[in-house]
């Protein structure tokens, strides 16, 4: 009986193999298993070659960078990223295409990048680097008053809207946050371009990918190094690069980062290629069982930026899901015991900061209810200190604890936090006791360092 079954199975298998072989060899020697035809064309179109040749003379630095990058190696040229439809609000013509049907834009929004990188752009658009990044510059009246009325000098007579009035926005705020690009005849106006990561373009695209993937080389090595983040994540209010470089991770990067393998493919860049993580490793890279993401909020638990720290939710991410994801990153190199201890320290640091903030906020509300705050917060010593408490020293304390930067958690953080708080208490007690605002402020108009 068993012998008969075996013969039957062998016959069926032979017949199936013969059918498959005959079927495969009808049209060619291999079965077509792909869902779509894959067409590979080598070389560039004559239009693309004309761009390359012209810009080799006009802007050789751009072409040199492009030539050494992966775009050139993949056959992606100027034409693929910069040519737009005539109806595009950013469409214009450079001298090289004048009189033709070709229109170009020097501005490249994430919509263009999305044509080849749809997953990356979709993830990016869910992150704090997209619409949220430009919100202070574009949407927030309070921030605009700071940029133009105070920093831009309107309060001392500088005319609103002229060049020097917008200089602080153009040289500082928009270069990191991004802004809304304004155009006339397809060309950017009013100093609204170039701009930072959350730039909003007239074609509806949000996001400037070249902030991290510097044009025109688009080096993956450059994007993975902490310096890629350092242009914006530094300074007295969020010294992330300073904290990283003082941490043990940063010390290892500074010591032998030059020897690490920075060129591995996405999702294949793992411990062994490097000895310590960079910003990209923790917040974006594929590592262990985690896939690469361009949503930098995805692995975060706490909101450490705003006045009171809460677990992230809504458009700022999902903090409940973020914590276990970040732990998975850590546990590629650290034990569960050490990982849990680190996050416990962060949670306690956040709880302590929130205690300071809630008491400071109660004093502010008391003074406001009694009419003991000045209308101009920047001429009011209590309100200035309130701002420094959460925006400067409070952030440093929280971020130092999150990134293992003891000097920032302590001396630049909690040590200064309690001093600022005690000064606020003194001012509060004086105003409550005398029912008036002190005549002379003793607060210097600069942030505590």
UniProtKB/TrEMBL annotation:
<feature type="signal peptide">
    <location>
        <begin position="1"/>
        <end position="20"/>
    </location>
</feature>
<keyword id="KW-0732">Signal</keyword>
<dbReference type="Pfam" id="PF13435">
    <property type="entry name" value="Cytochrome_C554"/>
</dbReference>
<dbReference type="Pfam" id="PF13447">
    <property type="entry name" value="Multi-haem_cyto"/>
</dbReference>
<protein>
    <submittedName>
        <fullName>Hydroxylamine oxidase</fullName>
    </submittedName>
</protein>
<dbReference type="InterPro" id="IPR036280">
    <property type="entry name" value="Multihaem_cyt_sf"/>
</dbReference>
<feature type="domain" description="Cytochrome c-552/4">
    <location>
        <begin position="37"/>
        <end position="82"/>
    </location>
</feature>
<dbReference type="InterPro" id="IPR023155">
    <property type="entry name" value="Cyt_c-552/4"/>
</dbReference>
<dbReference type="InterPro" id="IPR051829">
    <property type="entry name" value="Multiheme_Cytochr_ET"/>
</dbReference>
